Structures are given as structure tokens and as C-alpha cells.
């Protein structure tokens, strides 16, 4: 048995999309971070253990950017065959490349020490190394989904559905209860070039006709999310029992699709079944503000907005698979985007505890619109960035300079509804023939420069200026209609590729007072957001786009010097 200690500015518990984004954002802005994850892989519901594709906001130009988009694009580049183990590796690679980030995988948080209104340490057990890891941090982020630090510290949480009257909502029941949305075991299928057979195990359920699975579609590309249970049980303590029942249903459903009627699955085979259920809802922290259904409907116009939702209020019936009276969920409309306030990411019981993901401070109804993983990743990035602001200013979660936090998020390519990024004074003082590249708006066709390869775009100055950074935003087609990973693999897959609109090769040109130029060429670019650190004294800075990933035109949102 070993006992190790770690000291950090931020300890993140939970390595799903929210936790990973929080850890990356904080580490990149100078925080010492420890990320404690109880599984062998990162990504949570998006990992190879569960395999839920990442959903987010609906609507034109509303795709989430920042770290979430960065990971998507890296995966399309590194993992063109869309292997789930390589998607895991994409997430793992992002974490281990950060020098300020210590990653503890297979480490289950088991204990928290508190003093008065502060968390002093958390301790996790790492099974494969037989080691207890104790982390002493200035701040703690619970991104575990299940709010694991709540029972360890006594921090107040919500569970289940509030009564209509509690927040004046229309979606919840008249009387509060402890019912939730359930959990799902997903499965994955692959098309072959021949007819295949499937023999279900003896313990699987049998569904002879479509009438035995009413109101459930058979589209192989739908991921069969409706194989769901647990909403009427305890979504934490009854997880294993729910899994056992879900596996019987999964095998029975695939037997139905393959063997009981013509569902177009003759050449398809079952390739993988998830033994770890993906959860939608469990404990939620009570924060400085509780976001409710009315906030969602009003588009969340909060002064402290730090992220946004845009999924419908997708409220699954607690009975899950055994709800037979109609479609298994109600898609209550929600505006897209709607703003999420920073006050929903920290509580009042402990001055150094924050949270991001599906466990933030929201009612059951509001959760149904902000629980999807792209939204969770944005919340994580906001939390991690807030931790960096706290380190810089010596502040606490409750006293963070929100304006500074918002400016950092905008700088890091996160959209915040109602806010426009402030362009650097140096850029605005320059002369340019392409002012659209410095309008502070990094999405929307109306904000794009579109032109031929070989064009020379940029800025010239009245006198030599010292620059340290060149910030670029390219077009990654925020309206593409595919996710980060598929749930069904046809023989030929036309989607899930790097967007053709991305700039692939470009050159930065730095003009000097003596008439000379220095050049920096970049090949194989596959990111939307690129920041170059430079140390140059220049009279001009220019970008020459040279090739794309397939588009005949070059498309650029932003060129900024700082």
C-alpha cells in the first residue's frame, strides 16, 4: 500500500467532458491541476466505455467551440477510421501534453477533509497501483456528474423533480418526487458485405413484434437511446441492478431488429455492448443561484453568462423503456442559445468548491436542456478559466472578476450569448484592407472573409510595433450535421471528416522597418482556433492562406495581433 500527496491550485474530480475541459482550461492558464478520474479513460458518457455521441445546442452557427471543438477536430485528424479506443487516446493525449496537469486515472475519490467552510483535501484510491492519493488544493471542482464530493462534505444537493410551485415551472409534477431521467446501456453495430446471423443469449428478453416495443424506432443510426431505466430507482446506488436489466433489453432489442421482421439489418452485426450505463441525471448541487425552466424560456440573459445551452428541454419519462403510453420523452421547446450564469457553478456551503457538468445548480426541468455533453464541456472550460482568474487575482469562486472571466473565455474562442469579443487595441490601430477580420465576431457567414488561396491579408502599422501573439480563427463549418463519433458503422462512411472549409496550409509574414520580411509556414493545420506565440518587432503582419481541406475558397473569421 502506498500513500502519495499532491499539491495543486485546482483539483478536478471527474474526467468526463466537463472535468477534462476544466482541467485543460485551468492548466493552460497557469494553474497546477490534478485531475482525478475513477475510470481508465476520459470522456465520461462520450468515452469508449459508454459511447454516447456528444450533443449540444441546436440552430445555425450555435455549435460549441473552444476546447470542445478542438477535441473534435483533433479526433477527425488523428482518428479517421473512428475507432473508439483512438477517441479515448485523443482525450488522453490532450491531458498528458499539459505540463501543469497531473492525471490520476483509475482513482476513485473516497474521502474529503474539511475545516469550517473550506475543503482541505480529497483522497482517492487507485486500484491498479494500490495507492492512496491525497490532493491538497486551493480550490476543488466536482465534475463527477454524481456530485461525489457532496456526501463526502455535506454540501447541499437536489435530487429528483421539484414541484411546479417551487420555482413556478410548468414541466414538473404538481408534487415533488425523487424520480429522474434514467440511464442507458448503448450498443454499436457494423455493416458487413454479407448476411450475418445473431443468436441471443438465453437470458435475454424477447420482443416478438413491433407492438412489444411501441413508439420506439428501429433506425440503426439512432443509437437506441430509449433503452433506458433507473428513473424510478436510485440512479446512483441502483446502477448495477439497472445495468443487469438493461443488458437483457439490449440483447432482446437487437434480436428483434435482426430476427423478428424486416428492419434492414440483414448485413449488420452486433459489434459492442456497453456494460457501463450512461447517466442523465442524479445529484445536483444547490449553488448561489438555481437556474429554472423560466430562465431557460427567457433565454438566460444573465449578466454573468459564462456558457450556453441550446438543447430542447428533453424530459425523459422516469419509467424509461417501460413507458408504453407514447414517445419516451417530451421535447419541450427551448431557445437556442440560452445563457447559463456563473453563479450556477459554485455554492455557499464551501468557499472553495465549484462544479461543472450535469450536476450544476439547476432544476430538473432546466437540467433537461443543459445536460448534454457539449454544454457540459463549455461549463467545464468556464470553471477552469475561473480557477485561473482566482489564481491571478487571489479571489474565491464567489468573488471572481466575472468581466475578466468572460473576456478570457471569448479570447479562447467560446461564444457567450449577448457578448462580443474585444479586439486588441494594437489590431484596431492598424491599417487594413480586410476590416471584417477584426470585428470581434468569430461565427456567421456574414463575418467571414472568403477569397482565393494566395491572398495576402493583414495589417500595417505607422511605426514599428512589438507583437507577442497572432490569433487566428478559421472556418470549421459550425453547421456540419454530424457528431464527434458514430453509433453505427456502415460499409462506407461519408461523414465524420475534417471540415473541407478549414485552412490546411498558410504562411504568416512579418514585415520589418528595414524592408525585410520573416515568414512562418504552417502545414497540416486542422484546428479552427490557432494562437501563435511570437516575439517580433514589425511594421506589418500578414496571413497568406495557401490550401484548405477541400473547399475551393479560403474562409477566415479572424486575424488579430496582440
Feature tags:
562 residues, 11 helices, 25 strands, Jelly Rolls, alpha+beta, 7-stranded mixed sheet, 6-stranded antiparallel sheet, FAD/NAD(P)-binding domain, 28% strand
Account of the 3D structure:
The chain is an alpha+beta fold. The protein has three domains: 292 residues, FAD/NAD(P)-binding domain (3-Layer(bba) Sandwich); 97 residues, no CATH class; 137 residues, Galactose-binding domain-like (Jelly Rolls), CATH 2.60.120.260. The chain is built from eleven helices and 25 strands. The strands form seven sheets. Strands 1, 2, 3, 4, 5, 6 and 18 form a seven-stranded mixed beta sheet that branches. A six-stranded antiparallel beta sheet has the order 19-25-20-24-22-23. The longest helix is centred in the middle third of the chain and has 21 residues. The model has no long low-confidence stretch (mean pLDDT 97).
For the record, the CATH class of the largest domain is Alpha Beta
Helix tally equals 11
Query: How many DSSP-defined strands?
Result: 25
Secondary structure class reads alpha+beta
Based on Cα principal axes, name the global outline: globular
Outline the low-pLDDT stretches.
Answer: none
CATH superfamily of the largest domain: FAD/NAD(P)-binding domain
Largest sheet: 7 strands, mixed
Q: Residue share in helices?
A: 10-25%
* Portion in beta strands: 25-35%
Please give the structural blueprint.
Layout: E1 2-13, H1 17-28, E2 33-36, H2 67-78, H3 84-96, E3 101-104, E4 107-115, E5 118-126, E6 131-142, H4 149-153, E7 157-158, H5 164-167, E8 183-184, E9 187-191, E10 228-229, H6 239-259, E11 268-273, E12 278-279, E13 284-285, H7 293-297, E14 305-309, E15 313-316, E16 329-332, E17 338-341, E18 353-355, H8 364-370, H9 373-393, H10 402-411, H11 425-429, E19 449-451, E20 457-474, E21 488-489, E22 503-511, E23 517-522, E24 529-548, E25 554-561
Helix pairs in contact: 1-9, 2-3, 9-10
